[in-house]
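User: I'm putting together notes for a lab meeting next week and I want to include a structural view of one of the chains we've been expressing. I don't have a solved structure, so I'd like a prediction I can at least talk through. The sequence is below, exactly as it appears in our construct file.
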Amino acid sequence: MTSKEERLIRLLQYLKKYTDKDNPTSTALIDYYFDQKGLPDFFGPKSSRRKSRRTLIKELVRVINSDIYGNPLPKKEWRLMYDGYGESEPENNGYIRNLYYVQPFSRKDIEDIRKSIDSNTSLDNEQKETLKAKVTKHLSNENYESHDPFIRRGSDPVKKKKRLTDLKAFDARMRFLIQQKIYDD
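Assistant: Thanks for the context. Below is the predicted structure for the 185-residue chain, given as structure tokens.
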């Protein structure tokens, strides 16, 4: 079992890389992700996993959404969110649903930066592409491309259809595995 600090950091890395407001995650997907990474007991043994997972996530949300003295930040500065966070907790029955990391740059911000790079006449095409790739890699998450399939991949409609088919197949497989895991527990 990894230390609590390491689990908090890995969970934050996962949330930053794979979630945003349009693509929240669930605790079942988090479990599945860490199981696939070879950490099946990331949240502890199965018997106490649900409670320890909830406790760890709530602690991470509290820490990230606080200043260095532990005082809560204003709502507009929160970086982690889930349904019911900041409202009355009993209404949620303690469940954490639709957990996501609030990305610092919106898709529109990133697209505006990419367009300004394209319009810069002092850069050659190779420099522009390198710079745009860096902007996309460091200012967005894994979901950026899936929302705009033409970015960095060309506009070939056959490839686009294949990517969408692959995404649908992956989504169906994930749903099946999650349902199977829930019923097996």
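A couple of points you could mention at the meeting. Confidence is low (pLDDT under 50) at residues 146-160. The two ends are 20 Å apart (CA to CA).

User: Perfect, that's what I needed.
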